[in-house]
Amino acid sequence: MLILMLVVSLVSLSFFSACTPEEEKPQEEEVKKVFFGIATGGTGGTYFPVGGAIAQVVSNFADYDNVDVVATAQTSGASVANCNLIGKHEIESAFAQNNVVYWAYTGTEIFKDKEPIKNLRAIASLYPETIQIVALKKSGIKTVEDLKGKKVAVGDVGSGTEVDARTILNLHGITYDDIDEQYMSFSEATDALKDERIDAAFVTAGYPTSSIVALATTKDIVLVNITPNMVQKLVEEVPYYAAATIPAGTYKGQEEDVTTVTCLAQWVCDADLDEDLVYNITKALWEHRDFVEKVHAKGKDITLETAIDGVAIPLHPGAEKYYKEKGLIH
């Protein structure tokens, strides 16, 4: 009888052991890759190298929870084209001049015949974009008025540079009827100057601009001053411009300071982006901006203190959350 009870007990124990589920092992959550594009400009400008540096920062430091953020800088037609890309939800983010961003959002000025791009949101103001008028020394061009009758690159179609060129020429009483305008990217314009196919070019970019640096090593160039009186007039009539100086020695052969005007480069994005994503991207930028400074001289002008300067459209909620934490917004 004792043996029988022992056998029954063992069988029962085996039965209940078999019925007891094994201790479940915690499963690792699957890592989700999120691809994040940054539309910049042409390879010869400032947007592209700065965008490339920021993309590296985002890819290395913006991961959160189980999200792996993979950012890439993409060449594009610059400001106007970039705002249109975001309007069509064809890119996650982009660089653009602050004036162009405002016009796109409000449907004014060059966007007046189009639907306002209401899904534009700001991440940050980055650095001043200086309007540079570069001419071959042999062209004899010394003033803006000297551009009359000359072949002048005015920027890509749909670029902020083209807007600036038209604005500055008009303020000097010059229209495209007075010049032989050429629509070119920065790289195309400096190549054309190098080959002497054009006489001058407008370049709106942070200085030193790589394409101008390269040009100055092979050609004698001049940077055309906008006179102080005209600078004052521009600043009064076009409120998004500020007076600026390109210091002597910025480019080879530039022996004197050059007076001009500047606007701001801004990083904007699609309003539909996840708040946590944009928060962590914004945080990555400002906690690792020193890397951007190592890559390009304009990095020193990208500061948290000026992150919301000149922002005239709504901030993305993710960026706004970060700036509130840092006390920039109360």
Task: Walk me through what this model shows.
Helices cover 36% and strands 22% of the residues. It is α/β, with parallel strands linked by helices and 330 residues long. The protein is globular, with a radius of gyration of 27 Å. The chain has helices spanning 2-19, 47-61, 79-87, 98-106, 160-171, 186-194, 210-216, 228-237, 275-287, 289-295, 317-325, and strands spanning 32-39, 67-74, 93-97, 120-136, 151-155, 180-183, 200-205, 221-223, 242-246, 258-270. The protein has 2 domains: 32-126 and 266-325, D-Maltodextrin-Binding Protein, domain 2, CATH 3.40.190.10; 129-263, Periplasmic binding protein-like II (D-Maltodextrin-Binding Protein, domain 2). Strands 1, 2, 3, 4, 5, 6, 7, 8, 9 and 10 form a 10-stranded mixed sheet that branches. The model is unreliable at 1-23 (pLDDT under 50).
* Gap between N and C termini: 83 Å
Number of domains: 2
Number of strands: 10
What spatial form do the alpha-carbon principal axes imply? globular
Provide the residue-averaged pLDDT: 90
Number of helices: 11
Helical content stands at: 25-40%
**CATH top level label of the largest domain:** Alpha Beta
What is the N-to-C succession of helices and strands? HEHEHEHEEHEHEHEHEEHHH
Full CATH superfamily name of the largest domain: Periplasmic binding protein-like II
Q: Which structural class do you get from the secondary structure elements?
A: alpha/beta
Second CATH tier, the architecture of the largest domain: 3-Layer(aba) Sandwich
Which parts are unreliable, with pLDDT below 50 for 5 consecutive residues or more? 1-23
Percent strand equals 15-25%
Q: What is the CATH topology of the largest domain?
A: D-Maltodextrin-Binding Protein, domain 2
Task: Report on the biggest sheet.
Answer: 10 strands, mixed
